[in-house]
Specification:
The complex is a heterodimer. Chain A is α+β, with helices and mostly antiparallel strands. Chain A has 2 helices and 6 strands; from the N terminus they run H-E-H-E-E-E-E-E. Chain A has a 3-stranded mixed sheet with strand order 2-1-6, with helices on one face. A 3-stranded antiparallel sheet of chain A has the order 4-3-5, with no helix packed on it. In chain A, a hairpin with a 5-residue loop joins strand 3 and strand 4. Chain A is elongated. By secondary structure, chain B is α/β, with parallel strands linked by helices. Chain B has 9 helices and 8 strands. The longest helix of chain B has 16 residues. Classes of the chains: A alpha+beta, B alpha/beta. Chains A and B meet through helix 1 and strand 6 of A and strand 1, helix 1, helix 7 and helix 8 of B.
């Protein structure tokens, strides 16, 4: 369900970008998805197949890069990657962290023909 | 040919959320987005909150429901304005539907709007509604693994409520596990243990609410 609504939203951005650039056929869609979004790759792929069916991306390949979670400590400024959802600074043990990456849901680029 | 887009997939939703936030700020209305699984007690929480805050603070409710108006009906007796959003199967609310709902309120005469999101812990977290804060509601009967399974909600929430605390001894809910996971995720998150049916622990929640409004 989550994956389907993400893909439906992706298509709004895809259609806009394609029409602005006069693209008639899309061959590849490149996404960047943060790990915190908890997207299941197989579900994303099947949602893409369903939604793309009657669009200019019906034969397009979906490629996505998962972005690891990275934060910066507010107390000691250390930047570090978050593993196993442990949001605690390994340097000073503070829990006050700013998220640098890991929440992305980005359409990076489209490949296609005019 | 390749076209660089680099746009957020949720751009349309995020833009609309910004507009909602600006509107609410202008009208001096605080909006809270209640996120929980089905059955964790969002509607009961609203019932107790309306009973206890109803006279001092002018409250409006936006009810998100997948298919029915059952929750909205439960809240009718409190005589507060309620706008219903039926998502027709959709698993979350979005900022466009909130903007429409806000148009049905007399915002000048409101201090606080509760949005009861669709019961789901994943999608509602990803869709910004333009709220001031997200409130995570979990209950002891759902198990102690919610923070571990849904980290993003507990990172984004401004407060978490652990409901049905009166039932904890009848469940296998392990408070140590729950708090340990939560501390790893977000050590600054205030958590209030409450029971909406037994009226336990609600004072701290109401105090937190008053702090949001002032």
């Amino acid at each position: 369900m989550h994956e389907l609504s993400i893909i439906e939203n992706i298509f709004k951005v895809i259609e806009k970008a394609a029409s602005e650039n006069d693209i008639k056929k899309i061959s590849q869609v490149n996404l960047k998805i943060g790990k915190l979004q908890q997207v299941v790759p197989d579900l994303l792929q099947s949602a893409f197949e369903v939604v793309s069916k009657d669009t200019l991306a019906n034969e397009a390949k979906l490629v996505f890069e998962e972005v690891p979670v990275k934060v910066k400590c507010r107390s000691c400024q250390k930047e570090f990657g978050v593993e196993n959802n442990i949001f605690v600074c390994p340097n000073c043990a503070s829990g006050e962290l700013d998220l640098l990456q890991g929440k992305e849901l980005f359409l990076v680029s489209l490949e296609g023909d005019k | 040919m390749k076209i660089e887009v680099m746009k957020s997939v949720l751009e349309a939703n995020e833009d609309k959320a910004k507009e909602v936030r600006t509107l609410l700020k202008q009208k001096k209305v605080v909006m809270l987005n209640l996120i929980s699984s089905p059955g964790s007690g969002k509607t009961s929480l609203l019932e107790r909150t309306l009973e206890q805050l109803g006279n001092n603070i002018k409250i409006g409710i936006i009810e998100g429901d997948v298919a029915t108006d059952k929750d909205a009906k439960r809240l009718q007796k409190y005589n507060v304005p309620i706008v219903m959003i039926n998502t027709e199967g959709g698993c979350h609310l979005d900022s466009a539907s909130i903007e429409k709902a806000l148009g049905k309120f007399d915002l000048v005469n409101l201090d606080l709007i509760f949005v009861e999101n669709v019961g789901n812990l994943v999608c509602p977290t990803a869709f910004d509604l333009g709220e001031n804060a997200k409130v995570a509601v979990v209950s002891t009967t759902e198990g102690d693994d919610k923070p571990a399974k849904y980290p993003m909600l507990f990172r984004e929430a401004a407060v978490a409520l652990l409901n049905k605390i009166d039932l904890v001894e009848h469940t296998d809910f392990n408070k140590d596990v729950f708090y340990e996971e939560l501390t790893k995720l977000n050590s600054k998150l205030p958590v209030y243990e409450i029971s909406c049916t037994k009226n336990i622990g609600l004072a701290s929640w109401l105090k937190w609410l008053e702090g949001q409004i002032n």
